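P.,

For your records, the input lines for the assembly:
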Amino acid sequence: MQLTLEFGGGLELLCESVKVHNVNIDLPKGADKLTMRYLLSWVRTDLIKERPEMFMKGESVRPGVLVLVNDCDWELTGQLDTTLEEKDVVVFISTLHGG
Amino acid sequence: MQPNGDDVARIRREIEALKDTKASIEHKIAVLEAQLQQHQSDDVCNGSCPPISAVDANLANGLSADSVYRYSRHLLLPSFGVEAQSNLLKSSILVVGAGGLGSPALLYLAACGVGRLGIVDHDMVELNNMHRQVIHTEAYIGQPKVKSAAAACCAINSTIQIVEHKEALRTSNALEILSQYDIIIDATDNAPSRYMISDCCVVLGKPLVSGAALGLEGQLTVYNYKGGPCYRCLFPTPPPTTACQRCSDSGVLGVVPGIIGCLQALEAIKIASAVGEPLSGRMLLFDALSARIRIVKIRGRSLQCEVCGENTTFNQQYFKDFDYEKFTQSPLSTSPPKLNLLAADSRITSKEYKERIANGEAHVLVDVRPEHHYRIVSIPNSLNIPLASLEARLPEVSSALKEEQEHNGTVSGANLYVICRRGNDSQRAVQCLHKMGFDLAKDIVGGLESWAHDVDPNFPMY
Ligand SMILES: [Zn+2]
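Structure tokens returned:
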């Protein structure tokens, strides 16, 4: 499945400072759909190069990270159970505090 | 004729002495200019700016003839007009933080005719603020930001009321200060302040225009507006402190907070004048490098929110007693932490280090700052190994020590010192070195900051 993953607010530093990743992810064996839960574990093992604790906590993202599926907060789409479709855009952004 | 070594030293000394004199004269001029400016603005504004101009019975919505002329370009806007301007003139807005975000926000809010404009800040204007905190001028370096910002606002619009709150916002004064205003703008720079301001706005029922900027990115949204979410609905748990970067560590391109601050002024103006759709339930994400602005839909008010949710017990008393520094594990002030990880015999002061150089002691100085910091300025003959790669590059430390020992012909071996910007990372590095068998490694207390302060006043700090 073709997805666009974007990292911002400093999270891009965890994947070699690249903000936009066009990826092709195989569905997990025996599954007919791809959920955010699976995507997160895929990102953790296949994309993040360092300090995974700066991205995840447990099976979800760490506090202070907003997840947006097609420009919509994943709280509104079902969080970890959100089902992804072909060509979806998933944004991970760390909240900023500076000024 | 080539000048000899003595001449060079004499000329250098003379230059240094003249530079010192020049700096002291420039400082005196700056102070006098600031005093002069204060006197001039006092003449215009009579201490604090007078309240909104008197109502002229002959004009609709109570705008005076001067106000009609001053705000005529607003009045000419069909979608803004007299009513919105009149609302604005009757409104009060508080800007917390007169820094990178607050600077442009305050300038526009003063210019557009907000009736009463409050400014909260306890900091002084510094030279390294000037690239982004555009409300301040060089003449105010060393003076309170609130004073500088108020003078600038007053110079733009002497017909509005400007209120100076020269204090740090705390749970002990926040309720009293925020309650005097209709709309709050969060232009602060740290996590505990953001939670504190949001919670206070919920308790007082005030809309909050929240902006943030770091590096080349900015974020903006409106909280607690007409049933919309609060900061805690979005971020119920504070992020780990390692995820809270500061502009003073990570850097920020000056214009980025400028853009976000302008947008904060815009959102506040929309709310105050009751025009348009405020950015509530949505968030604006700005990426300066790729020139992209993304506006995303965010969750609504959470029924489970600790502060604004259904069964909340969070009230004014609870707020006053809440420890935001403990909650977020980080200080309300922006001053960087001062760690104390090492025993005293594993540390030396920058002055002691200077003496050891002067005595020709065989040693290696490892600078553990990131490479782009090292490129700004460094102590001659230091070896740059960033903390993150120290463990992997220990062989370089070993060979540098060996080389230094051979070069100096000492039997006892060369000493190992570690320096960083402020003396925190150097302690972490020494801990790591001790663990890896470099038992004699010592850090230089206070890092390059103390070197610049105590040893070499001409060493550039950043
Ligand atoms: Zn809430």
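Two observations worth noting. Residues B 229-230, 232-233, 301-302, 305, 307-308 surround zinc ion (CB under 6 Å). Chain B touches chain A through 46 residues (CB under 8 Å).

Regards
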